[in-house]
Design goal:
BirA Bifunctional Protein, domain 2; 2 domains; eight-stranded mixed β-sheet; globular; binds biotinyl-5-AMP
Length: 254
């Protein structure tokens, strides 16, 4: 483990060669009082994770696999907004650094060329009324070639190199993501959710589309009409009723 220097947002960067997952390390650091903006980043994850204990493939030296610890003074129900803040930040950094047009698929995927290029996993340490730490896990496929993905992922995953046709500087991209994340968190804390919502809507592909939302309880089909202040997806069902979706996997239907 090496400690690299940082600027005003990035308090400390802990850089590892190989870890099971950056998430438990970030949780431990947060419990021990890590400063806002502390980053855990690894060259390789041997057991990277997605939502609902799904695996996240994290090949050595090919991507950005990191967890960022944030300690905003907000109530726990607002924490999902940080998934959207992270999505906007990564989306814009990817455009600026790699020149790739990524789009956000609610809540936590970035797609490029219709395939998944980034996944975001937001976890919380909180009291009933106050967030102690938000851990934002960000996995970006950067320099994989098609054959670097396991066969099962080949039809659904892509990398920035595949999309842009050239190798992307991972250090530069990671710095861009962290700079954007610092800017967007500050904007959110100063001005609230509206400016983030606007940026998110500019970058999202979900809104206006027919989608199938698979939640842990049910599967709903309808048109995604927008997101609320809390980052909840609003779905207009075929009978015209509007349903708020808090957490789901979304399949775009057209
Ligand atoms: C996610 O989950 O998309 C969240 C991924 C978060 C990864 C970061 S890396 C740093 C930090 N440390 C961790 O251990 N995790 C975080 P979900 O929406 O559940 O998507 C998971 C699904 O994406 C899997 O079931 C696969 O189908 C697919 N998948 C796995 N690895 C992938 C990859 N490298 N690229 C594209 N798709 C992938």
């Amino acid at each position: 483990r090496k400690e690299l220097g940082g600027d005003e947002f990035v308090g400390r960067i802990l850089h590892f060669d190989s870890v099971e997952s950056t998430m438990p390390i970030a949780h431990r650091e947060a419990q021990e009082g890590a400063a806002d903006g502390t980053v855990i980043i690894a060259e390789e994850q041997t057991s990277g994770k997605g939502r609902l204990a799904r695996p996240w493939t994290s090949a050595a030296g090919k991507g950005i696999w990191m967890s960022v610890i944030l300690t905003p003074d907000i109530p726990p129900h607002k924490a999902p907004q940080f998934t959207l803040i992270a999505a906007v930040s990564v989306c814009r950094a990817i455009r600026e650094t790699a020149g790739v047009e990524a789009r956000i698929k609610w809540p936590n995927d970035l797609l490029a060329g219709g395939r998944k290029v980034t996944g975001i996993l937001t976890e919380l340490q909180a009291d009933p009324d106050r967030v102690k730490a938000i851990i934002i896990g960000i996995g970006i496929n950067v320099n994989q070639d098609p054959g670097d993905f396991p066969e099962s992922l080949q039809p659904i995953a892509t990398s920035l190199k595949i999309q842009s046709g050239q190798k992307v500087d991972r250090a530069k991209l990671a710095a861009g993501v962290l700079r954007r994340l610092g800017e967007c968190s500050r904007l959110y804390l100063e001005k609230g959710f509206p400016p983030i919502k606007k940026m998110w809507e500019e970058d999202a592909i979900t809104i206006g589309r027919r989608v199938k939302a698979v939640t842990v309880r049910e599967t709903l089909t309808g048109t995604a009409v927008g997101i609320t202040e809390e980052g909840v997806l609003e779905l207009r069902l075929d009978d015209g009723t509007i349903r708020g979706i808090y957490s789901a996997d979304i399949e775009l239907q057209d």
